[in-house]
Amino acid sequence: MLTILDKYILKRYLATFSVMILLFIPIGITIDISEKVNKMLENKVPFSAIASYYVDFTIYFANILFPIFLFLSIIWFTSKLANNTEIIAMLSSGISFTRFLRPYIIGATIISIFALLMGLFLVPKASAGFKNFRYMYLIGGGQSEMRENSDVYRQISDNEYIYVSNFNAESKMAFNFSLEKFKGDQLEYKISADRIKWNPKDSTYTMYNYIKRTVGLLEDNLEKVDEKNAKFSFDLEDLTPLVYVAETLSLFDLIKFIDKERERGSANINVYLVVLYKKYSVPVSAFILTIIAVAVSSMKRRGGMGINLAIGILLAFAFIFFDKIFGVLAEESAIPPLIAVWIPNFVFGILAIYLLRNAKR
Fold first, then answer.
1. Separation of alpha carbons 112 and 225, rounded Å
2. Residue 127: which residues within 8 A CB-CB, separation 6 or more?
3. Each residue of 81-95: pLDDT tens digit?
4. How many Cβ atoms sit within 10 Å of the Cβ of residue 319?
5. Which residues in the chain come in under a pLDDT of 50?
6. What distance in Å separates the CA atoms of residue 129 and residue 157, rounded to the nearest whole number?
7. In angstroms, rounded to a whole number, what is the distance separating the alpha carbons of residues 193 and 179?
8. Where are the domains of the chain?
């Protein structure tokens, strides 16, 4: 049962975290609008698309900056408690530091569950909308966005390969499509089309300016039509850029996708595993960062709240730096993705235990 003290600290914990997000997100939106307003006007982007984009933008970046928001909010209000000697009064009344920490852990549990559910189901959808908008409307000065969504080359079976130059997730259409089928080392046939569009009603593809070249012993057989419908063994996700599709899939779809790519012997399997494991590691970091933040800010310092905030910002960015570095190492090196993703939590977990012991003293 929650006591008055628990409710007091828990209310400050959740309220400060919420206010921190509400303060920083509008700043991020303002900066993003100032950078992209010219492109939006040039491409005559509908207001509904802009509104939808900034909803996705808010969810996408709140998830990315979640550790910083959490860390700074705890340091902020705990430092105020320390400067007002409220913590000293609490501990002097006979409450142990572990008991004082209980409402923080309850708050971390609430936020971690919320972050977990967002990461599993809401963030992938927001990520898809965020990336689709940038690809559709910001290509002019956003060549980097275009490159992220282009040149997809996939092996879909032991002897079949597909290629598209770029993919539009909104219209479910890919461009400069080709499919090559081999028999041993020899090309059996090649299908190419200027565009290929997915038809969800009957699970078929429509190809425009369709050409099929079948390799013969003496001469090749050539088939050309302006438009052709066909069924293929590959899925729509196979036309989507590799990292892009992993970030936009919900938990169960991502697991199915990873299983399928593992069966195909995909060379990018570590990229997908990093995305999967981070869905679980980020919520756990809420507990670790909460303990570190309380341990750092619960002592009354001569420099006041400013010193605590400086230490907090340094540690928060160090955590994100570790998280990014080991994520890249998991994708590009021989380090197992599960270990690489959890190393930042392990390192900062040890730091949390050390700081907590000093704080108790």
1. 55
2. 56, 60, 247, 248
3. 888 888 888 888 888
4. 22
5. 140-149
6. 30
7. 9
8. 4-139+270-360, 151-240
